Amino acid sequence: MAVVAITGGIAAGKSLVASTLRELGAIVIDADQLAREAVAPGSKALREIATRFPGVITDSGDLDRSALGALVFSDTVARSDLNHIVHPEVRRLYDERIAKVQSEHPQSVVVYDIPLLAEARSSEEFDAVVVVHAPAAVRVARLVERRGFSEAEATKRVSAQASDEARLELADVVIDASLSEAETVRQSRLLFEALVSLWPDRLAELPREFPGEDS
Questions:
Q1: Would the pTM of this model clear 0.85, i.e. be above it?
Q2: If I label 42, which of 2, 15, 48, 214 is the partner at 20 to 30 A Cα–Cα?
Q3: CATH number at residue 183
Q4: Interval 117-138: pLDDT, tens
Q5: Which residue, 61, 38, 34, is CA-closest to 50?
Q6: Which helix (H) or strand (E) holds 80?
Q7: Residue 161 within any structural domain of the chain
Q8: What is the span of the domain harbouring residue 170?
Q9: How far is Cα 167 from Cα 118, in angstroms, rounded to an integer?
């Protein structure tokens, strides 16, 4: 079955695009939700994390995401170790979801909301890749203004991910999310209309970009 991946760097606006597509009727599989399930209390992945990263499990047995994030965002080896623990389990859960969707909703537009596509999966696995793009400097500013990060911490979070250039190289479609939220939603609606009209066999005809409202 056809699956479109949607990706973007932290604070790019990907979640807004994904939620808009969901509201319009797309089935959206959320990689972040799968990652949370992968490290649920009692899971094999959580036990492996506890062994590799002592001190990141709360008294209630949950993962302390803030403590873990502080470790991995400043250490590329630690981040790689974490990915090797979590990503295979996320892949297993993804395959389960796809099989369920294929069985129950075979004609639906299916989107995989995956922040770390450039880091964790091959773009060749998907029928099209949508990159929600906002330049790194814009994303740093958003993290400072909207999430209360220091500029140094925001820069560290952005730098820990793939570069803008690497992500854009994967794109079949680019949503410019550097402007207003209303403009991002407008482009998301145009994307959904295009997906519906071309689904599932003509996705290669998706436009690279959607023109601005005044174009």
A1: yes
A2: 15
A3: 3.40.50.300
A4: 998 889 999 999 999 999 999 9
A5: 61
A6: helix 76-104
A7: yes
A8: 4-26+108-205
A9: 6
